């Protein structure tokens, strides 16, 4: 019987919309093998959540954790060759809105424990157009002078010459210039291998002379064009690098799109950023990205003149940093699969999959980021979103806790307990190891989405509540965060957190920054309360949200959807008063990974919207133009090289 099973099964699914947000999720398992099967369960993983509230017909849930479920057919059911089994599910945890919302991995589990993967098709919806993936082409014509993103704050160029073939950089013995030239070569190799962006004069590179001007700002630069080449002035490494990136973009445009772009022979660019915090966050917990991917992603950030990488290293679904004192964090917490403490989640399959960053990996990436002008802010998300951590170190739980509270993503009891002394000891050890790895002045501690019922049945937490004269979770969370913040302050770090850190009394405003994400209004409110704020609302800057409302667009939808134009046009400080603006630190793109089991989906969701946010961060509002951006965005790199395509 075993012989024909492999690739013998297909899981297809359909979303049948009901009224408003309701609907029916129909899952069908087809047996294309030559054998009958019985006594099996169907395991599915993908964004769709079938939790306790769901009702099923023709099947029952026998195991569920967040978005992983095992569904059994009715007792005695036999799936014959050529036969199908369909189960209908009502009252899902959230309505499906896009083709990536359903199960993206399905497999059969037999009574002896074996797991057999099934071909799993995208979730269909009647009337949908072919599914889109790969970076969208915006196109469009704009009157443009140079293919630059982000657009410089002052540019006056003239003349035209045939396309230069690359840059020959003369650093003139200046140390910072030499370092920047090397970093620029590294960027070129990572982003455009084989193009020969940097070349020797005897290979016909355009001569670029680097000259120090200490009067310029750290990230600013000045380029002067002349008939034989260009002069680039900056105060230090980052300014030189940014000037070289601008020149590199112009050379690439002229070489690759001769019909659209020429290269100037006179004039100047004088440039510097509008915002000091120009960030991008990446969730590597829901999905693991190897060091090669992170390395190229950092290069992409630099090419967009972004200067902060917020690295979301832990969540319910995984723990990704090597910690010497707690090897179990990565031995157990970095891996998911059938039969492991963490089951397949969000489209990962029955095979053991995942990964983590060793300390050596992290040191190398931090050093690389530094060469690219990027500060890496690590995030360990506490006290919520800690399911993986608590699976790895169950001793941190309150043994007296006897009830369940579920997070919004349906993980049971996933919060570190503020009243357990061992939790603080462990975090100090873990954070202590991490501050050695990350030189950033910031350390992000999460603080988002603690369920309202967290620690309700923990005797230790209830005793703490009583002592504080408090109710609910917020005051406990605030106490917990204040203590962590004091520890980090002692290590010379400013604590970063999501906006919920302001709840229940908040944390020390002088030693933190908060990221506003829940809605557009939230960030302004935080700024008014006196917090330094990074603006990243789900409605405009969450790059896991779909590009459009349509089913055929991949991505999530809890915060709606955002076209590149909407993301580009979003003004992070619209309506902010003087004092609120004084607390505005900058903006951040957030790349959450739930929908991205397909890497062509990553390329569609992240690009070119990442560049839209980068231009808002760098270019003064009065110099922005969506028409120009749309015409230029196609020259910007993406992570996997997947450009717009569709399939049925
Ligand atoms: C909310 S944003 C979350 C994340 C999810 C994200 C998906 C935030 C601080 N919490 O856990 O990944 O929505 O869009």
Properties at a glance:
9-stranded mixed β-sheet, 648 residues, 26% helix, binds ligand TNX, 8-stranded parallel beta barrel
Write up this protein.
The chain is an alpha/beta fold. Helices cover 26% and strands 24% of the residues. The protein is built from 16 helices and 31 strands. A 9-stranded mixed beta sheet has the order 5-9-2-1-11-10-4-7-6, with no helix packed on it. Strands 19-20-25-26-27-28-29-30 form an 8-stranded parallel beta barrel, surrounded by 4 helices. A 6-stranded mixed beta sheet has the order 13-18-16-17-15-14. The longest helix has 20 residues, at 237-256. It binds ligand TNX. Ligand TNX binds next to loops.
Total helices: the number is 16
Low-confidence stretches: none
Mean pLDDT comes to 96
Please count the beta strands (DSSP E, at least 2 residues each). 31
Strand order of the largest sheet: 5-9-2-1-11-10-4-7-6
Shape: globular
Largest sheet descriptor? 9 strands, mixed
Q: Give the distinct bound molecules.
A: ligand TNX
Distance between the termini: 33 Å
